[in-house]
Amino acid sequence: MSQTVSIGGRDVGAGRPTWVIAEIGINHNGDIEIAKQLVDVAVRAGCEAVKFQKRTPELCVPPEQRDLVRDTPWGPMTYLAYRERIELDEAAYREIDRHCRERGVAWFASCWDEASVDFMERFDPVCYKVASASVTDVPLLTRFAATGRPLILSTGMSSIEEVRAAVGHLDRDRLLIAHTTSTYPCKPEELNLRMVASLREEFGCPVGYSGHEVGLQTTVAAVALGACFVERHITLDRAMWGSDQAASIEPGGVVRLVRDIRVLEAAMGDGVKRVYDSELPSRARLRRQPTGG
User: Fold this and answer.
1) Domain that holds residue 276
2) I want to staple 231 with a disulfide (CB 3.0 to 4.6 A). Which of 21, 116, 124, 265 is the partner?
């Protein structure tokens, strides 16, 4: 298994700078202008990739939920109509692709059904992500694998046996695994950050962290524990409509997250004990000099 995987010309894995992904997901609420603003937030903060979510509503919405009526910012509508309302079409993704290229940021998506993979293939994405909900969807895993692209496997709400089974359907030389807990927002005591090391030890591939907690410190801690990529949902305003907004971070938080990760990386060092030049004046002033005997 490879300790690094190349994604869009960028090596992700052990010994490389942390790859920071801004998860836009569906926080754009079907509005291409909000989507582009979120891309700009990610770029200004120094994120290296943005991720969207793509579904085919008639395939992903269970029949018993399709006609359930819910209140939305656009008035009462069925759940199926709501899901269709917030999906971006091909023209919108063409605009996203153009915008991301102009901004110099990689973009990709988690696809929730095989038709969505076929749709995304039109845009030559740098990789794909398997959403935690899809870990046991063997036909979808098979379709992902057939693209030959790097793949991030999310592990939320999954047993280790389910993760092992999913990995068995995928090419480990192109595989990255994301530790996560699928609670929005997630309590600190359920983050289980030590799983980053456990997954890396078992599967031998690059392991990262996808966080849904409130706050930034635990995501930075995941990097200290060996996460080679991190992903956080981002939003323009946590009070906006949408199921993921409350577990997302606002523009100022995105800036602080990337800044703190880069400071941590500089601080981690290489584990070799040395005396730094900056210590020499203190050493000369404070150390008792040996006397002759």
Assistant:
1) 4-286
2) 21
Query: Residues of 46-75 as b/e, b for ≥16 C-beta within 10 angstroms?
Result: bbbbbbbbbbbbeebbeeeeeeeeeebeee
**The pLDDT value given to residue 3:** 87
The answer to whether 212 and 184 have CB atoms below 8 angstroms apart is: yes
Nearest to 162 by CA among 187, 133, 184, 182: 133
Separation of alpha carbons 104 and 36, rounded Å: 13
Is residue 289 very low, low, confident or very high in pLDDT (cuts 50, 70, 90)? confident
User: In which band, very low, low, confident or very high, does the pLDDT at 127 lie, cut at 50, 70 and 90?
Assistant: very high
Indicate which CATH number applies to the domain containing 262. Answer: 3.20.20.70
In a domain, 293, yes or no: no
What would the DSSP string read from start to end of 179-218?
E----SSBPGGGT-TTHHHHHHHHH-S-EEEEE-BSSSHH
pLDDT tens-digit profile of 219-261? Answer: 999 999 999 999 999 999 999 988 889 889 999 999 999 999 9
Residue with tokens 């836009």: 24
- pTM of this structure: 0.94
